[in-house]
Amino acid sequence: MLIKTANFVMSNSDVAKCPQEPIPEYAFIGRSNVGKSSLINMLTDHKGLAKTSGKPGKTQLINHFKINDNWFLVDLPGYGYAKVSKRDKKTFQKYITNYFLQRGQLVCSFVLVDIRHEPQKIDLEFMEWLGENQIPFCIIFTKADKLKPRAIQINVESYIQELLNGVWQEAPRYFVTSSTNGSGREEVLSFIGTINAD
Ligand code: GTP
Ligand code: MG
User: Fold this and answer.
1) Residue 153 predicted with pLDDT over 80
2) ipTM at complex level
3) Atom 21 of ligand 1 has which residue's CA nearest to it?
4) Buried-exposed string 31-54: b where 16+ CB fall within 10 A, e elsewhere
5) Which residues are CB-contacts of 20 (< 8 A; sequence separation ≥ 6)?
6) What pLDDT was estimated at residue 54?
7) Would you call 118 helix, strand, or coil by DSSP?
8) Domain ranges across the chain
9) Which of 47, 51, 113, 193 has its CA 20 to 30 A from that of 180?
10) Running DSSP on this structure, what letter comes out for residue 50?
């Protein structure tokens, strides 16, 4: 799919104040620093569209970006950032869970996991929560440029096996990406293009 335009629309912490246009929406979620904002920039080919940082905790709000004037990409704050206070964590959890539970136009969310890491409890639990609430998701493995192809294959296979050993009877759809070298871009965009066309 060709990205012709990508524009920032708004940031907020209240799902009720998110854009009201009833167009399809895709959201990126995952641990802080996993590469959500970088992936949005890579997919849209717009450096600096979503703010990124080497330090976790950069994205703090629900950020809507309008693509080709007819669908949204949504950059969300990361979870699992140890430095935020308990109170902030609670507030954050509330508005993120509200976002997922109340955003009717959310077509699919992408749960990002760093391809170098073993499956983390927080990600597995989050995916289970999405499943329990019937919120469709795919997995996006990030930072694939950090590993050789063989290691990528081993890590992906063992991740999927871990899901199948857990609550999942079927593996979710997944993509392997790198925001540094652009790998996986076409696959993710054509997946979005296919479901947008349905
Ligand atoms: P929060 O907003 O804090 O939740 O983080 P985030 O998930 O949006 O991560 P962000 O995109 O800000 O990237 C975090 C760090 O990882 C930055 O230093 C990026 O340059 C780096 N990074 C992101 N994607 C990749 C990638 O594909 N490859 C490599 N090598 N580094 C990446
Ligand atoms: Mg971010």
Assistant:
1) yes
2) 0.99
3) 35
4) bbbbbbbbbbbbbbebeebbebee
5) none
6) 94
7) coil
8) 6-197
9) 193
10) S
Say how many Å lie between the CA of residue 49 and the centre of ligand 2: 11
Cα–Cα distance for residue pair 3/123, rounded to 1 Å: 29
Task: Give the pTM.
Answer: 0.96
Bridge partners of 65? 8, 73
Domain 6-197 grouped into CATH 3.40.50.300: yes
CA end-to-end span of the chain, whole Å? 14
Q: How far is the CA of 169 from the centre of ligand 2 (A)?
A: 31
Hey, what are 97's tokens?
Answer: 């869970």
57-96 pLDDT tens trace: 888 899 999 999 999 999 999 988 766 677 777 777 888 9
- Which residue in 78, 83, 89 sits closest to 113, CA to CA? 78
Tokens of 140: 């996006």
SS3 per-residue string spanning 56-92? CCCCCCEEEEEECCCEEEEECCCECCCCCCHHHHHHH
Q: Where are the beta strands (DSSP E) in the chain?
A: 6-12, 25-30, 62-67, 71-75, 106-114, 137-142, 174-176
Return d(Cα 45, Cα 41) in angstroms, integer: 6
Token digits of residue 171: 């593996």
Give pLDDT tens digits for 28-56.
999 999 999 999 999 999 999 999 999 99
